[in-house]
Amino acid sequence: MRKYLLVAALCLLSACGHGIDGTYTDAMGVAKYTFTSGGKVTIEAMGISQETSYVREGDTLKVALPQKGASLDFTVGEDGALTGPLGIRLEKVGK
Prior knowledge:
Blueprint lengths: L1 H16 L4 E4 L5 E5 L4 E6 L2 E10 L2 E5 L6 E6 L5 E2 L5 E4 L3
Antiparallel strand pairs: 1-2, 1-8, 2-3, 3-4, 4-5, 5-6, 6-7, 7-8
Organism: Stenotrophomonas daejeonensis
Protein name: Lipoprotein
Keywords: Signal
């Protein structure tokens, strides 16, 4: 029983621990998100650049917003693209 609990815990930790890295942009090039494996992301949109943090929990990527406790949630697709609210789709640049 203890062995199964250990395996389950390791699987859970590995699912939560996978970061994401690289630059992702929308089809029109309006927004650009540059992720680093250290949990930081730089968001550039309309000439404004801001660094914030992100956490990946399985297939969900939560990008912290400046407001405390708020996040912008993306789903990581099988193709690696990020899909967010209102149909936002970000694809990796230079795959």
